[in-house]
Protein backbone atom coordinates (compact mmCIF):
# COMPACT_ATOMS: atom_id res chain seq x y z
CA UNK A 1 0.00 0.00 0.00
CA UNK A 2 1.38 3.38 -0.99
CA UNK A 3 1.66 5.98 1.75
CA UNK A 4 0.35 9.51 1.33
CA UNK A 5 3.93 10.80 1.64
CA UNK A 6 5.03 8.53 -1.23
CA UNK A 7 2.28 9.87 -3.46
CA UNK A 8 3.26 13.46 -2.65
CA UNK A 9 6.89 12.67 -3.51
CA UNK A 10 5.85 11.10 -6.81
CA UNK A 11 3.61 14.06 -7.63
CA UNK A 12 6.47 16.45 -6.95
CA UNK A 13 8.72 14.34 -9.17
CA UNK A 14 6.14 14.54 -11.95
CA UNK A 15 5.97 18.33 -11.78
CA UNK A 16 9.75 18.64 -11.79
CA UNK A 17 10.07 16.28 -14.75
CA UNK A 18 7.64 18.33 -16.82
CA UNK A 19 8.30 21.90 -15.77
CA UNK A 20 11.79 22.15 -14.23
CA UNK A 21 15.19 22.03 -15.86
CA UNK A 22 16.67 18.55 -15.54
CA UNK A 23 20.20 18.15 -14.15
CA UNK A 24 22.91 15.64 -14.90
CA UNK A 25 25.21 14.14 -12.27
CA UNK A 26 27.54 12.81 -14.93
CA UNK A 27 29.32 15.20 -17.28
CA UNK A 28 27.39 15.92 -20.46
CA UNK A 29 28.61 13.42 -23.09
CA UNK A 30 29.23 16.20 -25.62
CA UNK A 31 31.07 18.49 -23.21
CA UNK A 32 34.05 20.09 -24.90
CA UNK A 33 33.14 18.92 -28.38
CA UNK A 34 33.04 21.54 -31.14
CA UNK A 35 29.65 22.53 -32.50
CA UNK A 36 29.97 21.78 -36.21
CA UNK A 37 28.66 24.22 -38.78
CA UNK A 38 25.25 22.95 -39.86
CA UNK A 39 23.01 24.49 -42.49
CA UNK A 40 19.42 25.37 -41.59
CA UNK A 41 17.96 22.11 -42.87
CA UNK A 42 20.51 20.07 -40.93
CA UNK A 43 19.81 22.08 -37.75
CA UNK A 44 16.07 21.53 -38.13
CA UNK A 45 16.59 17.80 -38.66
CA UNK A 46 18.87 17.40 -35.65
CA UNK A 47 16.62 19.53 -33.44
CA UNK A 48 13.55 17.52 -34.44
CA UNK A 49 15.27 14.19 -33.78
CA UNK A 50 16.60 15.36 -30.41
CA UNK A 51 13.12 16.68 -29.53
CA UNK A 52 11.75 13.20 -30.20
CA UNK A 53 14.46 11.75 -27.97
CA UNK A 54 13.58 14.21 -25.22
CA UNK A 55 9.91 13.24 -25.40
CA UNK A 56 10.96 9.60 -25.28
CA UNK A 57 12.80 10.30 -22.05
CA UNK A 58 9.70 12.05 -20.67
CA UNK A 59 7.80 8.83 -21.40
CA UNK A 60 10.54 6.72 -19.82
CA UNK A 61 10.47 8.82 -16.65
CA UNK A 62 6.73 8.36 -16.35
CA UNK A 63 6.83 4.64 -17.16
CA UNK A 64 9.43 3.85 -14.53
CA UNK A 65 7.83 6.06 -11.90
CA UNK A 66 4.51 4.32 -12.52
CA UNK A 67 6.14 0.90 -12.42
CA UNK A 68 7.98 1.73 -9.19
CA UNK A 69 4.69 2.83 -7.61
CA UNK A 70 3.13 -0.61 -8.03
CA UNK A 71 6.20 -2.90 -7.92
CA UNK A 72 6.13 -5.40 -5.06
CA UNK A 73 9.79 -6.38 -4.65
CA UNK A 74 11.96 -3.66 -3.01
CA UNK A 75 14.87 -4.68 -5.27
CA UNK A 76 12.71 -4.10 -8.33
CA UNK A 77 11.50 -0.77 -6.93
CA UNK A 78 15.10 0.32 -6.33
CA UNK A 79 16.20 -0.67 -9.84
CA UNK A 80 13.27 1.14 -11.43
CA UNK A 81 14.02 4.26 -9.42
CA UNK A 82 17.71 4.11 -10.33
CA UNK A 83 16.79 3.76 -13.98
CA UNK A 84 14.44 6.75 -13.72
CA UNK A 85 17.30 8.79 -12.22
CA UNK A 86 19.53 8.01 -15.19
CA UNK A 87 16.70 8.89 -17.56
CA UNK A 88 16.63 12.30 -15.85
CA UNK A 89 20.18 12.81 -17.06
CA UNK A 90 19.04 11.95 -20.57
CA UNK A 91 16.38 14.63 -20.22
CA UNK A 92 19.06 17.19 -19.38
CA UNK A 93 21.29 16.14 -22.28
CA UNK A 94 18.57 16.16 -24.92
CA UNK A 95 16.92 19.35 -23.67
CA UNK A 96 20.14 21.31 -23.84
CA UNK A 97 20.98 19.99 -27.28
CA UNK A 98 17.53 20.87 -28.65
CA UNK A 99 17.94 24.44 -27.45
CA UNK A 100 21.51 24.67 -28.77
CA UNK A 101 20.13 23.75 -32.19
CA UNK A 102 17.49 26.48 -31.95
CA UNK A 103 14.60 24.07 -31.52
CA UNK A 104 11.80 23.69 -28.99
CA UNK A 105 10.63 20.87 -26.75
CA UNK A 106 7.40 19.04 -27.55
CA UNK A 107 4.29 20.91 -26.47
CA UNK A 108 2.62 17.55 -25.88
CA UNK A 109 5.03 16.32 -23.21
CA UNK A 110 2.37 16.47 -20.43
CA UNK A 111 0.18 14.13 -22.49
CA UNK A 112 3.03 11.70 -23.15
CA UNK A 113 3.86 11.78 -19.44
CA UNK A 114 0.32 11.12 -18.22
CA UNK A 115 -0.29 8.25 -20.62
CA UNK A 116 3.03 6.61 -19.79
CA UNK A 117 2.52 6.95 -16.03
CA UNK A 118 -0.76 5.04 -16.24
CA UNK A 119 0.76 2.34 -18.47
CA UNK A 120 3.70 1.93 -16.09
CA UNK A 121 1.44 1.60 -13.05
CA UNK A 122 -0.68 -1.02 -14.83
CA UNK A 123 2.45 -2.97 -15.78
CA UNK A 124 3.52 -3.01 -12.14
CA UNK A 125 0.14 -4.33 -11.02
CA UNK A 126 0.63 -7.42 -13.20
CA UNK A 127 3.52 -8.58 -11.00
CA UNK A 128 7.25 -8.04 -10.88
CA UNK A 129 8.25 -10.50 -13.63
CA UNK A 130 5.92 -8.75 -16.08
CA UNK A 131 6.96 -5.36 -14.73
CA UNK A 132 10.59 -6.17 -15.47
CA UNK A 133 9.66 -7.73 -18.78
CA UNK A 134 7.93 -4.51 -19.76
CA UNK A 135 11.05 -2.56 -18.79
CA UNK A 136 13.30 -4.88 -20.81
CA UNK A 137 11.09 -4.64 -23.91
CA UNK A 138 10.82 -0.86 -23.55
CA UNK A 139 14.59 -0.57 -23.49
CA UNK A 140 14.96 -2.87 -26.51
CA UNK A 141 12.57 -0.72 -28.52
CA UNK A 142 14.20 2.50 -27.33
CA UNK A 143 17.59 1.11 -28.32
CA UNK A 144 16.35 0.36 -31.84
CA UNK A 145 14.88 3.85 -32.04
CA UNK A 146 18.16 5.48 -30.96
CA UNK A 147 20.11 3.38 -33.44
CA UNK A 148 17.84 4.63 -36.22
CA UNK A 149 18.55 8.21 -35.15
CA UNK A 150 22.28 7.62 -35.41
CA UNK A 151 21.63 6.73 -39.04
CA UNK A 152 19.54 9.88 -39.63
CA UNK A 153 21.53 12.55 -37.79
CA UNK A 154 23.94 14.57 -39.96
CA UNK A 155 27.40 13.00 -39.88
CA UNK A 156 29.01 16.30 -38.88
CA UNK A 157 26.65 16.80 -35.90
CA UNK A 158 29.13 15.18 -33.54
CA UNK A 159 27.55 16.64 -30.39
CA UNK A 160 24.09 15.16 -31.01
CA UNK A 161 25.54 11.84 -32.15
CA UNK A 162 27.70 11.59 -29.02
CA UNK A 163 24.70 12.21 -26.77
CA UNK A 164 22.61 9.59 -28.59
CA UNK A 165 25.43 7.02 -28.43
CA UNK A 166 25.72 7.39 -24.64
CA UNK A 167 21.96 7.14 -24.27
CA UNK A 168 22.05 3.92 -26.30
CA UNK A 169 24.72 2.47 -24.01
CA UNK A 170 22.63 3.33 -20.93
CA UNK A 171 19.38 1.97 -22.36
CA UNK A 172 21.03 -1.30 -23.37
CA UNK A 173 22.36 -1.73 -19.84
CA UNK A 174 18.93 -1.02 -18.33
CA UNK A 175 17.33 -3.67 -20.51
CA UNK A 176 20.01 -6.24 -19.66
CA UNK A 177 19.53 -5.62 -15.92
CA UNK A 178 15.76 -6.04 -16.19
CA UNK A 179 16.21 -9.36 -17.99
CA UNK A 180 18.76 -10.54 -15.42
CA UNK A 181 16.36 -9.72 -12.57
CA UNK A 182 13.80 -12.10 -14.05
CA UNK A 183 11.84 -10.09 -16.58
CA UNK A 184 9.40 -12.23 -18.55
CA UNK A 185 9.24 -12.20 -22.35
CA UNK A 186 6.16 -10.21 -23.31
CA UNK A 187 3.55 -11.67 -25.69
CA UNK A 188 3.89 -10.51 -29.30
CA UNK A 189 0.60 -8.51 -29.31
CA UNK A 190 1.87 -6.44 -26.36
CA UNK A 191 5.16 -5.76 -28.12
CA UNK A 192 3.33 -4.68 -31.26
CA UNK A 193 1.01 -2.41 -29.27
CA UNK A 194 4.06 -0.80 -27.66
CA UNK A 195 5.59 -0.22 -31.10
CA UNK A 196 2.42 1.41 -32.40
CA UNK A 197 2.19 3.66 -29.35
CA UNK A 198 5.83 4.67 -29.70
CA UNK A 199 5.37 5.42 -33.40
CA UNK A 200 2.48 7.77 -32.66
CA UNK A 201 4.57 9.63 -30.10
CA UNK A 202 7.73 9.88 -32.23
CA UNK A 203 5.96 11.02 -35.39
CA UNK A 204 3.95 13.65 -33.49
CA UNK A 205 6.84 14.93 -31.37
CA UNK A 206 8.96 15.33 -34.50
CA UNK A 207 6.75 18.25 -35.49
CA UNK A 208 4.98 19.47 -32.33
Automatic annotation (TrEMBL):
Domain of life: Bacteria
Gene3D superfamilies recorded: 1.20.1260.10
Signal sequence region: none
Chain residues that bind Fe cation 2: 87, 139, 171, 174
Top class in the EC scheme: oxidoreductase
Pathway stated in the Swiss-Prot or TrEMBL entry: Cofactor biosynthesis; ubiquinone biosynthesis
Job of this protein: Catalyzes the hydroxylation of 2-nonaprenyl-3-methyl-6-methoxy-1,4-benzoquinol during ubiquinone biosynthesis.
Family affiliation: Belongs to the COQ7 family.
Protein name listed in UniProt: 3-demethoxyubiquinol 3-hydroxylase
Organism in which the protein naturally occurs: Candidatus Nitrotoga arctica
